[in-house]
Write a structure and sequence with these properties.
Elements: H1 5-14, H2 21-27, H3 42-63, H4 69-80, H5 82-91, H6 102-106, H7 113-131, H8 133-144, H9 146-149, H10 151-154, H11 158-168, E1 175-182, E2 189-195, E3 201-206, H12 209-225
Antiparallel strand pairs: 1-2, 2-3
């Protein structure tokens, strides 16, 4: 199978040339355009989530040999969460290579966090099935890079940390207000504003209110700690 110029370029950004290009095509095909013969990325996403989890669990054990399970769990969650997968996807411009139906195209599917995160997991599975675990492990560690070493800071629950910051200064807890909602009802995107009594604010956008609140809290923490 001959890949399009767009998919060839993505292979270069990814850093893996597929022996079986069909796997790459499937990993980048959204359900809105999938066919009964070729399918879409959902099954690969299921597998990729598990491959990513194993790679990150091993990486964390190697990174900190003295850490307890209680210390490792939030770090693990920070590395495998959809936001992180989507960030990595943006890093290699995965969105530009996605095959989407018209409905997803017009609603900005190439930029949606959940969609990018799911497709990133599918690509990991495609590499695993194409070349084995060792190759997939090497690719994941390269793409996640410094995130693995910096994960202890990233693993903080941002809303809790911001509330503790406010309490330490005898301020009321921060408030969270939904300021915008876009996209279709089945796949909305939320924008949340976090506000301190001091008047300082920051906003976060995500495909769930919880993730948007965390994003806003992280942004506000960066502002007040800066």
């Amino acid at each position: 199978m001959k890949l399009s110029a767009e998919l060839c370029a993505f292979q270069e950004r990814l850093g893996h040339t597929f022996a079986n290009p069909e796997l790459l095509v499937q990993a980048l095909t959204h359900a809105s355009v999938g066919s009964p013969t070729r399918g879409d990325y959902q099954r690969l996403e299921f597998l990729g989530d598990r491959v990513l989890g194993l790679v990150m669990a091993e990486a964390l054990l190697e990174e900190d040999r003295a850490a307890s399970e209680g210390q490792l769990a939030p770090r693990f969650n920070a590395l495998v969460r959809k936001e992180t997968c989507a960030d990595v996807a943006r890093q290699i411009d995965l969105g530009a290579a996605l095959k989407l139906g018209r409905s997803e195209m017009v609603t900005g599917g190439r930029r949606k966090q959940a969609l990018l995160g799911d497709a990133m997991e599918a690509v990991i599975a495609a590499v695993y099935r194409d070349a084995g675990f060792a190759t997939a492990q090497k690719l994941v560690r390269r793409l996640w890079g410094a995130r693995i070493h910096q994960v202890e800071e990233d693993a903080r629950d941002a809303k809790t940390a911001l509330q503790e910051w406010a309490q330490a200064r005898k301020l009321p807890p921060p408030t969270y207000t939904e300021t915008a909602r876009s996209g279709p009802d089945h796949a909305p995107t939320f924008t949340i504003e976090a506000r301190l009594e001091t008047g300082q604010t920051a906003r976060g956008t995500a495909t769930s209110k919880r993730e948007a609140q965390q994003s806003a809290a992280r942004a506000l923490l960066t502002e007040v700690d800066g």
